[in-house]
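Milestone M4 deliverable, item 7.
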Amino acid sequence: MKIKGEKIMLRPISIDFAMEMYEFTRDPGALKYTDFILPEKLDCRRQTPRRAQDDICNTTLSVFIDDFDEPIGNLGYIIDKENSKCFDLGILLGVPQYRGKGYGSDAMRTLIKYLFDEKEAEKLTLHVFIDNEIAIKTYKKCGFKIVDQGQEKSVRDGRMIDVYYMEILKDNFYGKA
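Output delivered:
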């Protein structure tokens, strides 16, 4: 599976890229605005191929610049357990020289279209640190709207931090609402 955007290509994560992606997600610039915790080391190759694929590949896509062989980031989605038409999204561009050049926006728009068109999603959600102005601007440009604010809902540098909850509805994305 390959999903083509204007500037990027989304492809499922392969085990070959799992270690490389783990390394670039350790970049402090990439992690400044993320709230997931990485293990001290990741060794997918020691897991059985099926287990590694279940854990890493099911809902995560690598972001490539067109057909280059090196990923510049990843994005993922999780299906809401209570509503299979609702997906929660996340994105990380791990290669610093590609940040701020529209690749993240293109990757997000491409994923949004894929989830609405191919996965029949009706609503997409995400949360973002309240001080991550660049991401908030990007998400708004893609059509997301702030719907709520959570106080002290995430941790960064050992302290609690506020987040915005954002969402986009399929009808709003396609101008039907």
